[in-house]
């Protein structure tokens, strides 16, 4: 057990060490870095964290993080409101936005079904997705969840929930990554990439 | 460039990304983790950081971090006030304390001489070390600086500064690490370990 020369220091280190992926050595380095910064820089840091926690909103439509009740994507009239892409979290929204290939709306579940972690369908924004689809404006739901057992389970659950609605369902393509060599791709992925082959554009 | 759905989120991510070793992706993960925590947990985090910055003191004797004007080590009457170990920063104090092999006092320089980074002798607590030695109570000064060019330069500078005083000077041993195999030790270290060999205890 490390002995800290100061209880204030130890407290700050403990708080940093609660963050994911940050151990006590890194935490100490971060706190000592903080001590070297100016008062105003440290205030800016702790204010930014307090503010984001207190004032952040979640979009009432898609549950993405937002400064306003309706997020900029849902509020954007130029986007296609008939297509909704279902994702796990806001990092996934940002990742898809960065591709610039999708111009519809999103629905952020807030996780995937994972009984091991105590996350059932009721912990996720699935009912609100069903309500959105029930309104009748949505023509296609794209499931863009992780290619894991939990992701697949959630995709299956959602597809059953939406089965009674007149809405097209699709799943993002599984296949070999762009830039990857065939021989190093695992066999399940390779098998999927053959099954889901796409016709060549002539 | 990532597009954040919220300016509050972007601000918090930018603040986290200013910390050493934390990129924007990690920063986003940390902020989203913060959002999942309770209000009181987030307050505890930002309070701990504000407090450590505002209320931390530096020991008036050894310049170690402390809650009080004199740090617990300097205030401890059981420690040997005749031996002072000169270190670069407080992590080094903690590392040496963890060995439980040293029972003297410390002197924290706050860095090493590094002209490339604009750090000269005047930026470090060298004058205050000279003053401590000039008081006449110190019998031995142990230089425990990093085994780098900057560390060696600083050791040399300090040894010259203290040359006129009647004080024993020593440098911590350089040699092969405990548990390391000889054949994988670099030749400079191995050479030093032979030069500085210690007599076997019979």
Automatic annotation (TrEMBL), chains A, B:
Keywords: DNA damage, DNA recombination, DNA repair, Metal-binding, Zinc, Zinc-finger. It comes from Prevotella illustrans. It holds the Pfam family RecR_HhH. May play a role in DNA repair. It seems to be involved in an RecBC-independent recombinational process of DNA repair. It may act with RecF and RecO. NCBIfam families: recR (TIGR00615). The keyword Isomerase does not apply. The keyword tRNA-binding does not apply. CDD domains: TOPRIM_recR. This is Recombination protein RecR. PROSITE patterns: RECR (PS01300), TOPRIM (PS50880). InterPro entries: DNA_Rcmb_RecR, Rcmb_RecR, Rcmb_RecR_Znf, TOPRIM_dom, TOPRIM_RecR. A zinc finger (C4-type) spans 59-74. Residues 82-177 form the Toprim domain. Belongs to the RecR family.
């Amino acid at each position: 057990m490390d002995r800290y020369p100061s209880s204030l220091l130890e407290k700050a280190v403990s708080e940093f060490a609660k963050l994911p992926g940050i151990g006590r050595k890194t935490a100490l380095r971060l706190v000592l870095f903080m001590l070297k910064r100016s008062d105003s820089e440290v205030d800016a840091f702790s204010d930014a964290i307090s503010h984001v926690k207190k004032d952040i909103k979640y979009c009432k439509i898609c549950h993405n993080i937002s400064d306003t009740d309706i997020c900029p994507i849902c509020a954007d009239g130029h986007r296609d409101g008939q297509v909704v892409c279902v994702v796990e979290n806001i990092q996934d929204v940002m990742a898809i936005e960065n591709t610039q290939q999708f111009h519809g709306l999103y629905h952020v579940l807030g996780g995937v079904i994972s009984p091991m972690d105590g996350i059932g369908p009721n912990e996720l924004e699935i009912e609100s997705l069903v309500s959105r689809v029930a309104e009748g404006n949505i023509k296609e739901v794209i499931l863009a969840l992780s290619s894991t057992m939990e992701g697949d389970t959630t995709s299956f659950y959602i597809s059953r929930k939406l089965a009674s609605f007149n809405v097209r369902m699709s799943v993002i393509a599984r296949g070999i990554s762009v830039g990857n060599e065939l021989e190093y791709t695992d066999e399940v992925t390779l098998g999927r990439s053959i099954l889901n082959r796409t016709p060549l554009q002539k």
